[in-house]
Amino acid sequence: MPRTTPMADYLSERDGHLFVDDIDTTKLVEEFGSPLFVMSEQQLRNNARRFHAAFAKHWPDGPVDIMPANKANWNQGVWAVLADEGLGADIYSAGELHCALSLGLDPNRISVNGGGKTDETLRKCIIEGVRITVEELNEPERINNIAKELGKTAKIRLRVKPDFPGIWRRTDFAVESLSVDLGLQIYKAGIPAQYLEELGREVLKMSNVELVGLHFHSGRWRSDTWYWKKLMKGYAELILRLSKAWGGYRPQELDIGGGFAIEADPLHGLKTRMHAIETFFTYPFELLAHVFGKAGRYKFMGFAIEKLMQSKPGSQRAPTIEEYAEAAVTTFRDTLLKGGMDLKGIRLQAEPGRSFFGNAGIHLTSVKRFKKQTKPIKLNWVLTDTTAFFMNTGVIEFSLNDFRIANKLNAEETHVADVVGHSCHGDRILPTVKVPELENGDLIALLDMGAYQEISASNFNALPRPPVVLVNGSQADVIKRGETIEDVYARDIIPPHLRREEKIA
Ligand SMILES: *Cc1c(COP(=O)(O)O)cnc(C)c1O
Where in this chain does the record put each Orn/DAP/Arg decarboxylase 2 N-terminal domain (predicted)? Predict the structure, then answer.
């Protein structure tokens, strides 16, 4: 059987080849080289509209702003599309702020987040009129002083960190095996709830600061809607408590952050698999296998790897954005209404990252060699021209992405192999997956690579990072050029006394 897991709308099969809109992926690598990151303009536009509709459906009280997390994909060519769709942005750094402002995004829909903001960044935020999402206790006072100096009023929101004692299911985000509520406590972001009442009272008295709303973002600690219902109930209860403590304070906007999974949820696919293997198979099992003698043990472990440890990318499905929006927004809204808050005119904001960009991008990589061994243990490797170092966040988050053999979509999957990168690391991008017989030059497409991957690429082994193209219909434009070897070494400086020409002279 060839692979039949669902793919995004801009991907299709024609004559056994994978197409991005109207372009054959094999033509893309012929023109732009391999490996290659590809983003779909139409999918970005569809996501912009789909996400807005999903959240607006359950928030009849006021406007809804979709403010994607810039960090998940900060290519300016990508953001030019989002600017055209009128979206806002969640921003974390001065560099990201530059991206949003230079593309002309509406400052009212730009939220600048993060701890340790410099005075220079705060000054820029106040001058440009973007929202400052406060992370630290001393930040409002710093902002007030700078705003006073500038003769302006800064618009701020407090990023809150509620307690969530009811979120007892296990998180897949933390390296430790923990309940979500403990995981969220360990996560550094947000102002601890214990300080909020007092901080808010002080902020409301400040002369040059306007508290326009509240913000909460925790991230994708679990992919189920159960988690979202619990989160939003806890957040809404904290908002009600603060509103009361602040003399009936009514926010203009409430931001529920991001953290929705990609539908073909690649995150932690590897960790789940490793966990199962560690529990049931490897070490104790492998020790026991010594009873078969040396040859028997290898044969047995070869069998276990091929048959039992196989990973199945794309088999894990997360809720759709419509399901997330319904669970999150209805719980949030119902809790606020029940607590007596008047929601009329309040803006609802969401900051999706991985779920927004993920399905809008793929990574193409060519097969260099199908390497096989049968002794002492049967193993196969598909050596590619890419590396896990070009998808660093995927490694950190133990991602297991779905894939296609882009020039042989209908080929039978006859082997089990590790699809590996060509750095000197183990570089197991897809461990023990089913693949067809492959040869030099075959093309592999890793799916759902639009969030957090290319923008986290590093130059390990002095490998130049690949280009990014944006496809729309039958048009493909380079939005980030590939690096050259000169680029890789462009920042290196050899001290004068070690320079060869100086030594010779
Ligand atoms: C990272 C981040 C997001 C996006 O998170 P995802 O899990 O990618 O959806 C949203 N808001 C803030 C403040 C973030 O730091």
Answer: 48-265
